[in-house]
User: Fold these one by one.
Assistant:
Number 1:
Amino acid sequence: MALTREQMAQRVARELQDGYYVNLGIGIPTLVANYIPEGMEVMLQSENGLLGMGPFPTEETVDADMINAGKQTVTAVKGASIFSSAESFAMIRGGHVDLTVLGAFEVDVQGNIASWMIPGKLVKGMGGAMDLVAGADNIIVTMTHASKDGESKLLQQCSLPLTGAGCIKRVLTDLAFVEIKDGKFWLLERAPGVSVEEIVQKTSGEMVVPEHVPEMQF
């Protein structure tokens, strides 16, 4: 059974470490803020100039002026800092973000990512993704394994305009957790109830499958 958006966010949250500065992209990545392990201190950064982003607000605590890069209302944790987007991008470009979580349309076996444009379709555009993939060593992409038409998003070579080249090392889809190295996808974990055969069938790029592929636990 494919992972829900919330389960994907939960799985990504396990990759957090105490003291991390983390940037969460638009979509599924923003949900990671709700699953930070108790007792762990993580500072979430938003390109529009907020370091120390908290969970999404309730109706009682919503502040229309407190938004993330996707224009969603957010909260701030104790010790948060608000600054200009220029300073925020200086932090990103200077390599001061420990983990970046991004959505994508496609990823290929060379670690290329396409996340900003589908010709002929109206999408949000590049945003800060170009800077994030260039300024971070530790990036996790979250996306569905295949499109609604069943077309694989894990490809031998990206077909859409690239956001960044050779920068992606790990991908979490609704079916699997995958590492990219040596020009191949390496299957690390599978979603509960999802077979290795289904994952391989829905992966266009070359995939290495170990003898034992553990199920993710929730």
Number 2:
Amino acid sequence: MLEIISFLGLNFIIGFYLILTLQWYSYKFSRILFHFAKPLWHIYFIVFPYLSFLVSLYFNEYMFFLLTFLFLIIYGSYLYKKLDKKLIFTARVKRFFVCLFLFSLLFLLENYFLGLEALACAFLCSFLVEKLNQLYFIKKAKNKILKNTDLKIILITASFGKTSIKNFLYEILKDQYKCHKTPRSVNTLLGIVKDINENLDISTQIYIVEAGARKRNDILEITQFLNPQFCIIGEIGLAHLEYFKTQENIRQTKLEALKSNRLEKYFLHSSTLYKDEFYDNFLSDIEANLDGLKFKMNFNGESYTFHTSLLGAFNAYNLSACISMAYFLKIDIKHLIKSVSNLKAVEHRLQIISRKPKFIIDDGFNGNFKGMSQSYELCKSYQGRRVLVTPGIVEVNHDENIKLCKIINECFDFVIITSEINSAILKKHIVLENIVLKNKNQLIKILAESTKDNDLILFSNDAPNFM
């Protein structure tokens, strides 16, 4: 009986841990093997329990493993309670646990207790089922797109700013066309497929799609599936450099969006280094402060002035892509000026939460050097104490965070570091008063103790607790 309980306990603890981490990293084993932020957790919840089980199996002393299992359950529960991204019991996760239970039962009936075989079979079976499901839903979504012969698809990709461009473009076009956009930050092939199958109305005229990537051919896969008529490639930077290794690899991956069989027109940022004219060349006279943004766009020899309450000079570049696309679609320039003036901040992107009693700005989804540094320069003009809450920049090299620290030192008075992932390098290069949170759950308490009325508080970027 102790042998059976040990076998089931091993499968449960490793299975739960693996499916949780896979969900965090889009079910890519390569990412949890080579890009996991806390590799010691793999030792705690995979290596340690398995070695403990083998020792118990060898000496036929399963109480040793059960004590190990009890310890890991207590410690794992403690860590899990602090996580801000807990396991979501999707249909896929439920299917995995069904497979794990069935294979564990099968191996028990065969009296076969080597440990990880049931787990391996459960994952293989689960991934096979998901692959078959994916093929079915991809074909269903493709047929739905082809049935709507009037549908125009705008594909948007960039190292950063693509979600903002998508949302701004939707707001600008929605009064003239029946539009639909991918929700939130959905930007993977399967996320897009799900949106098409569940949300895209057959009468939609323009479908605005955000495309993201973690490796070469990710954008190509989406492009070949959608075959968009229009494409916007925003600024190319060092986001996800950890995966791509070089900026040139990032650039080539983003340019995969041009390989559509139906491409009619594209709008490119100058950082793409492509052969054509760039939409940011039509942009000039940018003025940004804590009250809003003003800039000019030049079309056919005429200059037009745009005003918006949006914060950040980088939003002028995002908007210039949207305005260029809308102008090509023959939206009247007066309507464009009015639409831009009415735009609201995208959630968590330089969104003003309050001005009194504390000036609070939520820029939690801004995770690149250019956008973060510009938001810091914006805060520098504030006449009062300035507090920064940030984990730094993730998935980039150390140089990017060192450069960021220099700007932080010039623009703020106090810094709260919210993640361990960059804490060592931030502590080393930030000369201001600062504090590192061991747990983000402490943040509200620290803010209450460390800030006062009339302080400016900028929430810059965000990183989950597992980083």
Number 3:
Amino acid sequence: VERRRRDKINNWIVTLSKIIPDCNLDSTKTGASKGGILSKACDYIRELRQNNQRLQESLKEVERIQMDNELCRQQVD
């Protein structure tokens, strides 16, 4: 039971290493450490969250500009 639990955890860590950029197990002979993979995964998630927040702010700004543009068009008409 314990071996299956460890195998599942190890398989998920390997899966993470394939998803996270610059985090390949084959980068060295022994592969990246589990802790290193988890650390890079946390860094990547933080980066994605920051990018998502910036994109949301940009979207709000675009929507504001579109509304201003529409108001200006209505004033011209």
